[in-house]
Amino acid sequence: MSDSLDYAVVFEYTAAAGGYAGVRTWTAFKDKADFEQWLHKPDNKVLQNQKIVARGVSDDQAIRLVEETPIESYAAACVEESIRSGHVSKFLLEMHLSSTAMAIAHSGRDPLILVNEVEKLLIQKGVLVID
Known about the structure:
Blueprint: E1 7-13, E2 24-29, H1 32-39, E3 50-57, H2 59-67, H3 71-82, E4 83-84, E5 87-89, H4 90-106, H5 112-125, E6 129-130
Parallel strand pairs: 5-6
Antiparallel strand pairs: 1-2, 1-3, 4-5
Helix pairs in contact: 3-4, 3-5
C-alpha cells in the first residue's frame, strides 16, 4: 500500500478571508476519496473563506496554479499578516515581504513589484508602520 499523496487540490482565498483574498495554496491528498472525506468533516470550515480552483491535478500543475496568485493579493496578505494592535509592524512586514518575495522570484516574476504594491496599499489605506 502506497502512502504517496497523488491528488493535489488548489484553493483560493475569497473576499471572506479579508486581506488574503486571491491568494492560492495547494494541499496533496492520497486520492479523491481521501480529499472528499477531509472536505466533508463536520469541523472543516475551509470553504467558508476559500474556493476550490482545481482538484486531482499533479503537483507541478498545482504549483503553476499557485504561481498565478496576483501580486496584489500577496501584498495585501503581507500587510494583513503584519498588523498588530491596529498598526503594521515593520519587523513583521519585512519578514513577510522577504519570504513572499522569494516565492514570487521562484515563479519568475520580479519581487520588487511586491514591494511597490505593498507601498501603494499602505499609502491607500493611510496605514502607519511602526518599528
